[in-house]
Amino acid sequence: MNTLIDTYGRVHRNLRVSLTDRCNLRCTYCMPHDFAAWLPSEHQLTTDELVRVIEIAVSEGINEVRLTGGEPLLRPDIVEIVSRIKAITNAPILTMTTNALTLEKVAQPLVDAGLTRINISLDTLDRDRFKLMTHRDRIDDVFAGIKAAQAAGINPIKINAVLLKGVNADEAPALLEWALANNLALRFIEQMPLDAGGIWERSALVTADDIYADLSTRYQLTPCDDRGSSPAEEFFVNGGPATVGIIGSVTRPFCGACDRLRLTSDGQLRSCLFSLEEMDLRTAMRNGASDEDIAARFRKTVAGKLPGHGINDPKFIQPQRPMSAIGG
Asked: Could you tell me the pTM of the whole model?
């Protein structure tokens, strides 16, 4: 098996695969409530194309694949996709990030097909705040999806929460209390400049330091051992074994240990969430590129990866694609 290693010595083993840019929520930090600038359907990779790219990636050293969106469960053949990925020789660890709105119906079939872990986005426990943040009254569907995932035996189940000043910034301790009571692994994520509405402002950022300080008013947090390539700083809660994670993408960048590549739903390979360049795999495949040609494009993308995302550089330029079109 080959190894995807960049000029800074980082070995790339993780591929984030966006299945669609569409979503059934309109989270304010991601897109406007009336957002409709979706990618053309004919540009989306077919299931055969997706599986082919992932199989080539695995042959180049990828050993974990995370399915994302938009909202991946909007893909009607999601169970088939999972099953086909797990049938690949040397099949990767297969995980998913979802808003869980429709997870209740497919949690067990996904597990039966080979899904092993899942991350669920939930920023608030309050119905009115959920409606304010997502423009949808569907918090009960999220809770139902979480219960279905637990019943299906998915473990761990991680909860991803983004805190916004003036909206839900006061909920960190309550979210952690709820997560601990329900055997869920909570991770807070700093809001990143990847929103389609262009509303991100550093001055409004709830930072990793803010989150740590707020949690520390109620809980004793002790740093866990070396995080490796994980984006989250993990802390034992009251001595453990339960933990909580904080992902400080903006104020505590972890680029030096990054092992991730990203494939957009329209077949563009990205070396970084904030990359301004993409490698077009879709057009190459549809023009008859061989597996070796596609593998070479993976190697070229990794070779050109920058040392960091540059968010804190005065010359930082926000990517034109929003998070929903890149994949979380």
From this structure: 0.93
